[in-house]
Write a structure and sequence with these properties.
two-stranded antiparallel sheet; mainly alpha; 5 strands; 296 residues; 53% helix; three-stranded antiparallel β-sheet; 10 helices
Length: 296
């Protein structure tokens, strides 16, 4: 049966500001931290192609937003999608900055959150717009008891989309496990040179590690590709031109090509002893170092 149309909230949707251009992080101004400066230099040298591709994806997002900035696109669905998208964009930008400063331990939780937000964009638009409309209708008004503006938290979690999107899940699941206080995750983050003879932990380390950089920049590229995939498949919400669609397809192919490099550090799920575990491939601190595998 045809579902009745959703009620229309009374609030109008204002124009949403967005940057005109994305630029990669600049050289750190930290003369007292040569390790941070070295991490920036080595990330640029070793992973320059990845960084340039990431910048292309970020700027393609801004191009789509610019094409969709006319007032005729300012619907409540647009607000639901772009408001959440704004959080993803900021998290990707922050993660790239942290990565170029070798602050690898901070990236996993940003990637986990970004995956949840991207899944929410898709699920709100295609399956559960009523949740967003219901939140608007039930809140966004004064609360006399507390003399406050009732924004309402609007609990929402797009679990079915996270389960269905295999590419998004490739980032979401390992980033979630590595961002939590799991013992092996801590060892991999602050003691990657540890072995069966010693625990070699660091504190506040900002030294370049090519294994971590490849893994996390790979996550960033995939998350950027998934965000664009969600956007270009919303032609009834955004102004998706043929040029933007083709640019996304080219970007997606480039991401797949980079991530398919067999010498790249990566994390994959394996069966070990009857349990699902994570196997880290090609993990090493320097590009010239001997690659090793770590089973988590």
């Amino acid at each position: 049966m045809t579902q009745p149309p959703l009620p229309t909230p009374g609030q109008r949707v204002s124009g949403i500001d967005f940057p005109t251009e994305y630029r990669l992080p600049s050289k750190p101004d930290t003369a007292d931290r040569p390790d941070v400066q070295d991490a920036y230099r080595q990330t640029q040298f070793v992973l320059g192609r990845d960084l340039r591709l990431f910048a292309e994806g970020m700027n393609l997002q801004l191009r789509i937003l610019n094409d969709s900035s006319h007032s005729r696109y300012r619907t409540h669905v647009y607000a639901a999608v772009v408001g959440t998208w704004s959080r993803v964009y900021s998290q990707m930008s922050d993660a790239c900055l942290l990565l170029t400063r070798a602050s690898y331990v901070s990236v996993a939780n940003l990637m986990r959150s970004a995956c949840e937000l991207i899944a929410a964009e898709h699920q709100v638009k295609h399956e559960e717009l009523g949740e967003f409309v219901g939140w608007m209708l039930g809140h966004l008004k004064p609360d006399e008891e507390h003399k406050a503006f009732d924004a309402g938290l609007g609990h929402f979690f797009a679990g079915s989309t996270l389960a269905a999107d295999a590419l998004l899940r490739e980032v979401y699941r390992p980033a979630s496990d590595l961002g939590r206080p799991n013992f092996g995750a801590t060892l991999l983050a602050v003691g990657p040179e540890s072995n069966n003879a010693r625990l070699a932990f660091s504190f506040g380390d900002a030294a370049f590690h090519v294994g971590w950089a490849e893994i996390e920049l790979g996550w960033l590229l995939r998350v950027c590709e998934r965000q664009l995939a969600v956007a270009v498949h919303m032609p009834d919400v955004l102004n998706i031109t043929q040029e933007s669609h083709e640019a996304y397809a080219t970007f997606a192919r480039s991401v797949d090509e980079i991530l398919a490099n067999p010498s790249r550090a990566k994390i994959e799920e394996v069966e070990a002893g009857g349990f699902k575990r994570w196997l880290v491939h090609n993990f090493r601190r320097q590009p010239s170092g001997a690659p090793k595998k770590i089973l988590l």
